[in-house]
């Protein structure tokens, strides 16, 4: 399923954070979004998922226009979200989280059994509460919960934030596997090197504008110029010396 975002404007209390964002995520590919803190990455993901009502613009999934629809309608249309910070409940067990996430679909593609097969670590932790899980286990649970909503477009907002390198690598492997099986993946990623590893395309969001959107092959050839768009230490247009 293709996700197409066009001219998307969104923000808070009438103020604009996103200024006409354009993006396309093709089936079976990973589109990474990188950008500085506060660039609007989470706002974008929320506006797509219907957690934030956009001011204007299009969110088209499989040819169906969804911008402004309620979150549950967008979820039912096949858009799943793994939110930033994972949002795991401290007092619920893994098993309870999974039971809550299961929808009423007939012949679902993702069952609890299949999700646990993909994420065997969770199978060993079914009776553990959220606050008894490691960061990596919480992230796996957040992914499991999203998969149980039967997404064909998956939005992941900084899934490797705060994870040890090995666990973050495992998360990237998972994401690659899902895309390999046909999922359209929009991945917000803090680190360009990690985005390069997993993504087919990389876009840079800056002050709510997509200022760059190229194939990963292209980015590999010129990582420094993309990195400079992300750095807060190096201004994009440094003043010439002595001026
Ligand atoms: N709930 C909110 N209410 C008001 N402003 C917000 C809210 N959430 C985010 N913002 C503002 O929107 C801008 C973009 O934030 P965000 O989308 O979270 O950026 P990112 O995910 O790229 O770090 C920031 O200036 C932030 O302060
Ligand atoms: Mg964010």
Detail the topology: elements first, then pairings:
Elements: E1 3-12, E2 15-25, E3 30-34, H1 41-49, E4 56-61, E5 64-65, H2 71-76, E6 79-82, H3 94-101, H4 112-118, H5 120-123, H6 135-147, E7 153-157, H7 165-180, E8 184-188, H8 192-198, E9 201-206, E10 209-215, H9 216-221, H10 223-230
Parallel strand pairs: 3-8, 3-9, 6-7, 7-8
Antiparallel strand pairs: 1-2, 1-4, 4-5, 9-10
Helix pairs in contact: 3-6
The structure holds adenosine-5'-diphosphate and magnesium ion.
Residues 41-42, 84, 157 line the site of magnesium ion.
* Cα shape: globular
Strand order in space, largest sheet: 6-7-8-3-9-10
The CATH H-level homologous superfamily? P-loop containing nucleotide triphosphate hydrolases
Helix content: 25-40%
Number of helices: 10
The topology string of helices and strands comes to EEEHEEHEHHHHEHEHEEHH
Number of strands: 10
CATH topology description: Rossmann fold
Largest sheet: 6 strands, mixed
What is the SS-derived class?
alpha/beta
Distance between the termini: 52 Å
Family: Belongs to the ABC transporter superfamily.
Pfam family, one: ABC_tran
Protein name: ABC transporter ATP-binding protein
GO biological process, one term: L-amino acid transport
């Amino acid at each position: 399923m293709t996700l197409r975002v066009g001219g998307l404007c969104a923000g808070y209390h009438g103020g604009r954070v996103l200024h006409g964002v354009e993006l396309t995520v093709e089936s079976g590919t990973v589109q990474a979004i990188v950008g500085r803190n506060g660039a609007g990455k989470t706002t974008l993901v929320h506006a797509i998922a219907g957690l934030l009502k956009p001011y204007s613009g299009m969110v088209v999934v499989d040819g169906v226009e969804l911008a402004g629809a309620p979150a549950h309608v967008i979820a039912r249309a096949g858009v799943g979200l793994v939110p930033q910070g994972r949002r795991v409940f401290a007092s619920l067990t893994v098993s309870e989280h999974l039971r809550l996430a299961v929808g009423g679909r007939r012949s679902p593609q993702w069952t609890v059994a299949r999700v646990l097969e993909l994420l065997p670590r969770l199978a060993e932790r079914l009776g553990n509460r959220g606050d008894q899980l490691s960061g990596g286990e919480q992230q796996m649970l957040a992914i499991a919960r999203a998969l149980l909503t039967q997404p064909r477009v998956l939005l992941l907002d900084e899934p490797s934030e705060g994870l040890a390198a090995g666990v973050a690598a495992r998360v990237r492997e998972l994401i690659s596997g899902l895309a390999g099986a046909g999922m359209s993946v929009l991945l917000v990623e803090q680190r360009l090197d990690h985005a390069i590893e997993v993504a087919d395309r990389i876009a840079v969001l800056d002050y709510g504008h997509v200022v760059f959107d190229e194939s990963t092959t292209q980015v590999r050839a010129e990582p420094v110029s993309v990195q400079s768009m992300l750095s807060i230490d190096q201004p994009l247009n440094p003043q010439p010396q002595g001026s």
